[in-house]
Design goal:
Belongs to the bacterial ribosomal protein bL33 family. This protein is an all-beta fold. Helix content is 0%, strand content 41%. It starts with 8 loop residues before the first strand and ends with a strand.
């Protein structure tokens, strides 16, 4: 399968300031704005917001 630019790999980083990041893919056609996820940060041991950095 060919990889195109519609689903690039992104790395949302933790807003807790720990530097922890997840790796995922995002469809730019469906969500053109920056992605914000609420996921678990193991360094602070709680759920925090992760914001996409390009």
């Amino acid at each position: 399968m060919a990889r195109d630019g519609t689903r690039p790999i992104i790395k949302p980083k933790s807003t807790a300031g720990t530097g922890y990041a997840y790796v995922t893919r995002e469809n730019h056609r469906n969500t053109p704005e920056r992605l914000v996820l609420r996921k678990f940060d193991p360094k602070v041991r709680r759920h925090v917001e992760y914001r996409e950095e390009r």
